Amino acid sequence: xxxxxxxxxxxxxxxxxxxxxxxxxxxxxxxxxxxxxxxxxxxxxxxxxxxxxxxxxxxxxxxxxxxxxxxxxxxxxxxxxxxxxxxxxxxxxxxxxxxxxxxxxxxxxxxxxxxxxxxxxxxxxxxxxxxxxxxxxxxxxxxxxxxx
Length: 148
Hints:
This protein has six helices and three strands, in the order ααααααβββ. It is of the alpha+beta class.
């Protein structure tokens, strides 16, 4: 082994545990929205592949043009809103359920006891996408940042 190869092997790259959202891990802007869009696009692409629809047939079914289907299948999601992706799932026969819950973390001993929720509460949103005609279920979960 050459000296240069040994030097490259000695250089260690730090490894960090993922939060479950690659966009947040990379500190990209709008990480939660990007993560949500990808989860919805995965469900859409899965249904389209399962039904073996061509891009042109899928475009007609979703009432968009074929280049948009191409962008969706390649996860180029800048031109799509979360609402629009959810609308596509509805057109594909999915029921979409959004559940919002307050989730309180345990209080520290220093915080005063009160009847109102502690400021560390976060809204937890669960989205369950269920294809109406089948038993399969897709679930996406994410947490919103605490309110300012």
